[in-house]
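Quick check before the chapter quiz. The format below is the same one you will see on the exam, so make sure you can read both the input and the output lines.
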Amino acid sequence: MITLPIAMMENPETGKAYFWEILIPGSICGAIVGFATQRYGRGAGEPAASAGGAAR
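Here is the expected output.
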């Protein structure tokens, strides 16, 4: 919603709005990141991996 006014702006030289050229790549990127987070992300109860390497 924050970038909607920017996406709806028209190019002063061509008079064309680049709404779809901005929306489609952002949606695809968001879908990929969301899928990867849901599929490969840590669960809420799982501890983070330690930086030292050895589990205690």
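If your answer matched, good. Residues 1 and 54 are 44 Å apart (CA to CA).
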